[in-house]
Amino acid sequence: MSQSSSQQYDVIVVGSGITGGWAAKEFCEKGYKTLVVERGRHLDHPSKEYNDMKAPWELDNHGLAPERLAEEGHYGMLLAKKGVLKSDSIQFFADDKEYPYSYPSKRPFMWTRGYQLGGRSITWGRQVLRWGKKDFESNAKDGHGVPWPIGYDDLAPWYDYVESFIGVSANKDGLDSVPDGVFQTPWEMSSAEKYIAKNLAKTYSDRRLIVGRAANLTKPTAQQSALGRAQCQARSHCQRGCTLGAYFSSLSATLPAARNTHNLTIVTDSIVSTVDYDEARGKASGVTVIDAKTKEKRSYKARVVFLCASALGSVQILLNSKSKRFPTGLANSSGVVGRYIMDHFTGVIAKSEVLGLEDRYAFGRRPIATYIPNYRHEKAEDVDFIRGFGFQTTARERPKIATFGKKSGIGVMAKEQAKQDKPWEFKALMYGEMLPYYDSRASLHPSKVDQWGIPQLHIDAKLKDNERNMIKQAAADIQEMLEVGGCSNITIRETPPNKHLMVGNRTHEMGGACMGADPKTSVLNKWAQAHDVANLFITDGACMSSCATQNPSLTYMAITARAADHAAKLMEQGQL
Amino acid sequence: MQSHTITRRVFIGASTFILSVPLLASSFNKQRSLIEITQDGQFFSSSELTVLSDVADIMLPKTDTPSATDAHVVVILDAMMLSWAVTHTQEQFRACIKLIEDLATQTYDSVYINLSLAKRSQLITELDSRAFEQKKSNMSVNYRRLKEMIFHIYYTSEQVATDYVAMPGGYAGDISKTEFEAAQKRGYL
Ligand SMILES: Cc1cc2nc3c(=O)[nH]c(=O)nc-3n(C[C@H](O)[C@H](O)[C@H](O)COP(=O)(O)OP(=O)(O)OC[C@H]3O[C@@H](n4cnc5c(N)ncnc54)[C@H](O)[C@@H]3O)c2cc1C
């Protein structure tokens, strides 16, 4: 039975993760009655589900995820990523057995989701890097994907705006590839990282090792303190939720700000199955949801709908929202909804030692890695690929000799040796830019549905020659950079060309409703507003026309705040 | 809402009983330097627990830092057999205890717990090196899994992870050993 809420909202925001939280805050603060519809359960902040205050011995099963989960086929994808699924944070990840999706058997796709109030803003890595000018120009320049209808300058003031609110601890590095912004005190580099950074800067004009840019507060502003957020204590338990509100999440920041306005309504356990389309008005009228517990249907109405259900979540909703005008899914006159699915990929992992700094140590657990930004935007003569890659890197602390749990040796010797300090170790993980391929696609499975009767998303995406060629070059480059950086005992693990690299593995899935100037080839205009449906905006990763190499959430936030500002102006003018 | 949360916690194996589990009744056999556990655990029998705790103490004996028994490794392991392990793992660990008992009989013609500490230590040391030399056999697989778990529980225990700092208060990445040790001692930057 379907019920309809009699209340009309100004705006419905679907999803309460990083982008949904932002949309809610912006509209509420502008005075609009806003409804956030979230499929997952309610969480308070701080939540009883946070485990950040627990010591290793206080965690369930001393931190290990129960084996039963693997045996019964739960969390298959996360378990495949060895060491990721732990008892301290498992509750914040969606189980793919409970929430299935589909992919070709030869080409598994990894879709990591967080179905709860706050979405993945609870578990994200908090690396916040601006995209540079070249990142927005690449599609137009090399002809892949749909040219971006916006450039860096369009987003720059919005980057400033979101950075000021979320709090970014970072160094002003003066690099065009990752422009500087509004920063709080940066985290320090370790002795080994400083040493490598110095050596790289001596040799290269274009390659830099910088400290990561973290959405963790090092110097809270008055606005952040007023929301109850405190300075980061360098515990690095962020994935467990932060009682101190020291890192940015919807729960700690945007949703409380939205709530303060008294314009916010949140409904949880409510799965949006469709955005409803009013054929007569040619506009979205609201959303239909299925109650996650009772499976009853109900609908909500609003003047404007913001889809922020994460890139693939929003694509699924669009494709499922069929009408006479849009038989293949809402806002899909171009046929591009679900196309150009991308993610960053890694095919190179490098490890090395940094000798000669054995008298130096680090204290505290810095909550962010270091980073080598993309230095290969231009296609060089000697390479067979376009675009480029960066590296997420770290030598945060002096390691100890690993315990003998996984190697031969017991008794006093094993105990004594495990206490010894080892030389610094520097690790680097390639993050490559995947090209936007038209045939990299998410569609609705013709027959498989989930337990609520919603067609499952079928995701078929693969890396091609350009990405494979990048991997070869990245392996050679990092070998050279580690040597130049002064590292020893370098080992490089490169994924062989015939081994499937799962797209989605880096959890930066993007595309599926890309922005573009031409309604025939893109879904959204430069305001992330659907070409076909003026009161529908999609501001999560689905709107991205290319994926660059930087972690993308900061850019989603800037796009969301900018889109909300535009939508509000149109509402004021009576156009929406 | 409440029931959903509880169901979910139970489903993902969340358990608090491990922390509050009582210590097992035991007596110390001075002659053989052996802790004899006299009470069945939640999963293992008292005789299995006696072998297990002895093996754990041989692997991780008392030095200037605690032994496996001091860190309650086997008590926690016993509880985790229900909250963490699947049947296959339970069988592996039981098989490993049996293997150790069989080895004692074959090598010394004696039950394991009647051997002197020196002989028990020699047996486990030998088993350890053999298990890592030929990794394919069931014996090796079972032993290495059990060992890994004993070490994991030990190094994440309150008694041993004493350098765990709950609230470092900040990060300093380039300090001397003296500065590092002072911060560790303070438990704060
Ligand atoms: C371990 C990890 C580390 C990461 N590290 C970084 C990083 O360092 N930097 C970075 O930039 N990004 C990082 N990411 C990615 C980042 O989390 C995402 O880009 C970001 O959360 C996307 O925001 P979103 O609002 O689009 O989606 P989410 O934050 O995923 O929120 C989507 C919300 O929509 C809800 N939803 C979905 N479908 C429906 C529906 N049908 N009806 C109602 N509600 C629905 C979900 O339950 C969820 O709450 C990381 C992710 C993970 C998992």
Automatic annotation (TrEMBL), chain A:
Query: Could you confirm whether the keyword Magnesium appears in this record?
Result: no
**What keywords were assigned to this record?**
FAD, Flavoprotein, Oxidoreductase
Task: Please give the cofactor(s) recorded in the UniProt entry for this protein.
Answer: FAD
Q: Which SUPFAM superfamilies match?
A: FAD-linked reductases, C-terminal domain (SSF54373), FAD/NAD(P)-binding domain (SSF51905)
Q: Which residues form the Glucose-methanol-choline oxidoreductase C-terminal domain?
A: 440-559
Query: Does Flavoprotein appear among the keywords?
Result: yes
Q: Where is the Glucose-methanol-choline oxidoreductase N-terminal domain?
A: 12-344
Superkingdom: Bacteria
Q: Which Pfam families match?
A: GMC_oxred_C, GMC_oxred_N
In the record, the note on similarity to other proteins reads:
Belongs to the GMC oxidoreductase family.
Q: What is this protein's record name? A: GMC family oxidoreductase
Name its species.
Paraglaciecola algarum
From TrEMBL, chain B:
Pfam families, alphabetized = Gluconate_2-dh3
Q: Which InterPro entries match?
A: Gluconate_2DH_su3
Name the record gives this protein: Gluconate 2-dehydrogenase subunit 3 family protein
The organism named in the record is Paraglaciecola algarum
